[in-house]
Amino acid sequence: MSFIPLNITGEQIADIQAQGLKWTVSHAYNNSPYYKRKLEDAGCRPEDIKGLDDLENLPFTDKHDFLEDYPFPLRAAPMSDIVRIHGSSGTTGKRKILCYTKEDVDNWANIFARCYELAGVTKMDRVQIAVGYGLWTAGVGFQNGCERFGAMAVPLGPANVDMHIDMLLDLESTVFCATASMGLLMSEEIEKRKLMDKIKLKTIILGAERHSAPMRKRIQEITGVKHIHDIYGMTELYGPGTGLDCAEHAGIHYWADYFIFEVIDPVTLKPLPVGEEGELVVTTLKKQGTPLIRYRTHDVTRLIPGACACGNPFPRHARISGRTDDMFIFRAVNIYPSQIDHILGGIGGVGSEYQIHLNQDADGRDYMNIRVERTNGAVAGEDNGLADQVSGQIRKKLMVRSRVEIVDYGNLPRTEKKSKRVFDNRSS
């Protein structure tokens, strides 16, 4: 059984999106008092939505809507139909609480099963899940999708390194699902214990945080896996599983029969042409509990034109390069951590781990320190001006000066969660 409708055409996807858009607006308007007010304030009613050309007339939804309508924001189904809730981490304030009906849970499992299929997973695989459970959507999303697909789930969560090593060896897990930080942590532990020839991993699926090419390369070198796949998703969009990059690794195929993806200019809020980078905006087509209309994800990406060489008919977007809200301003220059990622990835001799420290001197002038690991096995004193090379490339590409410190491999902290890259110690 294939979960991916490989015979679907672009015309059929467009028709599904048009019908889904009309349903979502009508469903939200008729079942959510908050959405009804929001749509009426924007001069929009369900009967005004005739097709995809009307999408731009709809108001955006953003995180402030979740705060204003807390604790069950944007709910558009009766409480008797809500079978589950999930929530965001709440690191920037109140958690975003999402309501799920039974059909929402089923749809989420189905699209996640598509991701496993696209990654080449089979029913004979053993899928070790190393992402968090609980209110966070990740663990249960990976598990439900795995079970719906029909492979064996090994649901450890972040757990501890020893337990993960035991399961990799004893159960001979073939697929490992984790954050990129956890993937690196486990890979280095496998290397430290000299277990490279004893594990049976063939595929790794990484999500929840962006990661650099050097990090992927390092994980792949240690584990020997053929493919490392990037999965996309967020709590507001069911959770992880909205799309995955195929074996071509030429963009993330997203399930356009469940979502409409737009890319907008985050300043003008106008849609950008296909191929231009901007902020991803998503409209759901089938969500009952918490539908989303033009939700501003604040993730930075671009839509990729043309067909993929893999033959999958679903459209693609580029890997997430950053977030509009993790940008920092240094000496009047807007900088994304992903730009530092990209620069470091092009310099030989540096590893994947780095930290950006922003400080002020006694006169109140900003300065930036960047701590970067050297590659595994490299020896201090043999860097041949590596720090100057890094700072020179940053100045050339970003037009700012930085102080670069090269530290030993493994010197920067590892985590089973998301790595913190930017430490802003400047006074406001």
UniProtKB/TrEMBL annotation:
Q: Which PANTHER family is this protein grouped with? A: BLR5969 PROTEIN
What's the top EC group for this one?
A: ligase
Query: Which key words are in the record?
Result: Ligase, Nucleotide-binding
SUPFAM superfamilies listed in its UniProt record: Acetyl-CoA synthetase-like (SSF56801)
Function statement: Catalyzes the activation of phenylacetic acid (PA) to phenylacetyl-CoA (PA-CoA).
Q: Which GO terms describe its biological process?
A: phenylacetate catabolic process
AMP-dependent ligase C-terminal domain location is 333-426
- Pfam families per the UniProt record, alphabetical: AMP-binding (PF00501), AMP-binding_C_2 (PF14535)
Offer an example of a GO molecular function term for this protein. Answer: phenylacetate-CoA ligase activity
Please write the reaction equations for the catalytic activity of this protein: 2-phenylacetate + ATP + CoA = phenylacetyl-CoA + AMP + diphosphate
Q: In which pathway does it act?
A: Aromatic compound metabolism; phenylacetate degradation
**Stated name of the protein:** Phenylacetate-coenzyme A ligase
Which InterPro entries does the annotation name? AMP-bd_C_sf, AMP-dep_Lig_C, AMP-dep_synth/lig_dom, ANL_N_sf, PA_CoA_ligase
Q: Which family does it belong to?
A: Belongs to the phenylacetyl-CoA ligase family.
The AMP-dependent synthetase/ligase domain sits at 55-283
